[in-house]
Design brief:
With 338 residues, this protein is an alpha+beta fold. It is built from eight helices and 13 strands.
């Protein structure tokens, strides 16, 4: 790293050390959110403090729509084998040396830092990838975020600022242009606008679908998530490993798996092509087996991609974080060592 990058890294570590001294995990639970509205970056940052139960101590920083994944996890309904797909964030970790990523240990060495007992490191959790060290752009983002979350934590822990977390309040911070100062205030949780893409089905399908037989089948369909298995050849130029996409379809009642594919991202040109292909596979299933009574999907995003086809074919879509037939199939993959 060059001198400027080293200065930024050291600034980030300085803020993290100040947070460590506050020991925020003694005072906050992971669901007690802090919210920083950053006008300069046109972004909302959410902070979850982990470690109150005595386990892994860290701060998880979610940017914008990433918070929806956190809220899904907070319900404690997402199965462990797909959990990584909902945990998109940057973490500031306080852990033992052996728990720290080897590449992060290299960064710490290059910065001439040393720790005793508890090491500080930063990890990026991005959907479809193994956890990895953060890049210099993310270092700048974390400096801005952690500086403000430190002030919020200090307000609570040192100054006794009261927030009714138990009844759904969060602590919000922003810069007041009129008063020329930062303001902290408790309020209900604010969320960014969630943008869902949709796949439109042409009217010719509607005419054809009306002629297909209706069945009592209830199917489960998953195609947006990744299976967290490390494949040797799935490696980016920056050294990060990426995961294969899991596209599974099953009969919910019988437990029969109709479709199971692990798909490399190089098998399709872009995200939209993959989603369109996945919708076409569902349509082909209708042609072979008839129109099912209902389709179970794991989250709202998947539901929105299938909403138009379901509406036109008069199929009920049910969101269920746990897909009993597909999850059983996941378990069988685990027993086979995948």
């Amino acid at each position: 790293m060059n001198l400027k990058e080293k200065e930024l890294w050291l600034e980030l570590y300085k803020v993290a050390e100040k947070i460590q001294k506050l020991e925020p995990w003694k005072y906050l639970w992971d669901v007690d959110l802090l919210v920083y509205i950053c006008k300069e970056m046109d972004e909302i940052f959410y902070c979850s403090v982990m470690g109150h139960g005595g386990m892994h101590k860290a701060l998880a920083i979610y940017q914008g729509e990433q918070v929806f994944g956190f809220l899904e996890m907070a319900k404690n309904q997402v199965p462990e084998h797909v959990l990584l797909n909902y945990d998109e964030c940057i973490t500031c970790n306080f852990m033992r040396r052996e728990q720290t990523l080897p590449k992060n240990r290299e960064i710490i060495k290059e910065l001439d830092l040393s720790f005793r007992g508890t090491w500080i490191s930063f990890e990026n959790f991005e959907k479809g990838y193994e956890p990895s060290p953060i890049n210099i752009k993310q270092v700048k983002i974390m400096i801005e975020a952690l500086k403000n979350f430190y002030m919020m934590l200090k307000a609570i822990i040192v100054n006794g600022f009261k927030v009714d977390f138990e009844n759904g309040e969060v602590l919000i911070r922003f810069y007041d242009e009129d008063r020329k100062l930062f303001v902290n205030y408790p309020a209900p949780l604010i969320l960014p606008e969630k943008h869902y893409d949709k796949i439109k089905i042409d009217d010719e399908f509607v005419k054809y679908a009306m002629k297909l037989p209706k069945t009592e089948m209830e199917i489960e369909y998953e195609f947006l998530n990744y299976l967290p298995i490390k494949i040797r050849d799935n490696k980016e130029e920056d050294g990060r490993y990426y995961y294969p996409r899991a596209r599974f379809m099953a009969d919910r009642n019988s437990g029969v798996v109709i479709l199971h594919d692990l798909i490399d991202k190089n098998d399709y040109e872009n995200e939209n092509d993959y989603i369109v292909e996945s919708v076409e596979i569902l349509i082909n299933n209708f042609l072979e087996m008839g129109i099912p009574k209902s389709i179970y999907v794991r989250d709202e995003e998947t539901k929105m991609f299938l909403k138009d086809i379901a509406d036109k074919a008069k199929i009920k879509i049910i969101v269920s974080p746990k897909l009993k037939a597909i999850d059983k199939f996941y378990d069988s993959l685990g027993r086979m060592g995948m």
